[in-house]
Specification:
Elements (H helix, E strand, L loop, with lengths): L4 E7 L7 H12 L4 E6 L17 H12 L2 E5 L9 H10 L12 E7 L7 H14 L2 E2 L5 E3 L15 H22 L2
Parallel strand pairs: 1-2, 1-3, 3-4, 4-5, 4-6
The protein binds flavin mononucleotide.
Length: 186
């Protein structure tokens, strides 16, 4: 690795025992040497209102500052009704505005997600990839990390106990580091 990399981790759930927030905490522990994952919690961000976009709430100002300060992004998203949860989309919308002042543009990103179902956030992840087109965020294509049957992979304290999932996350983070270094050379 050339120089230390910082990653801003955002989970698209507010739930106390969220599998996705737990997966993000696991990623923080599994980060390769020299890589720091800082977690941004979405709790408390008001609903987007275009009337306020030039004078946004303090949390949004902080979110934009932190996106800009970090080298890369890690989205950990649940799937709600076949898409990205509103709480995540809301934060994405805030930080993309006002027009011409998006904090997202040019950032490398990795995407993963956990679901209690079998299909394991695939549809939400592909919607998020579509959103990344307009944000000009560059999501890593592979590996794809879709944590299905989440209730069997985390313990009651939210620790990720499934070794194969931990290995997938390690590989995702290693790939994100390589991807970030490639984009840095441009
Ligand atoms: C409003 C709502 C919609 C949901 N829709 C889906 C869905 O489309 N696909 C899916 O796999 N799970 C769906 N689920 C189940 C979530 O995968 C499950 O609640 C998951 O644990 C949410 O993530 P979290 O544990 O990080 O909060 C839905 C849950 C809620 C609350």
């Amino acid at each position: 690795m050339n120089k230390p990399i910082t990653i801003l981790g955002i989970a698209g759930s507010l739930r106390r025992q969220s599998y996705n927030r737990s997966a993000l905490r696991a990623a923080k522990q599994l980060a390769p040497e020299g890589v720091t994952i800082d977690i941004f919690e979405l709790e408390g961000i008001p609903a987007f209102n275009e009337d306020q976009e030039t004078n946004p709430p303090a949390q949004v100002v902080d979110l934009k500052k932190r996106i800009r300060a970090e080298d890369a992004l890690l989205f950990v998203t649940p799937e709600y009704n076949y898409s990205v949860p509103g709480v995540l989309k809301n934060a994405i919308d805030w930080a993309s505005r006002p027009y011409g002042d998006s904090a997202w543009s040019g950032k490398p990103a990795a995407i993963m997600g956990a679901s209690i179902g079998n299909i394991a956030t695939a549809r939400a992840q592909y919607h998020l990839r579509q959103i990344c087109v307009f944000l000009n965020v560059f999501p890593l294509n592979q590996p794809e990390v879709m944590i299905g049957n989440a209730s069997q992979r985390f313990d009651a304290e939210g620790n990720l106990t499934d070794e194969s999932t931990r290995e997938h996350i390690r590989k995702l983070l290693q790939s994100l580091v390589q991807w970030t270094e490639r984009l840095r050379q441009k």
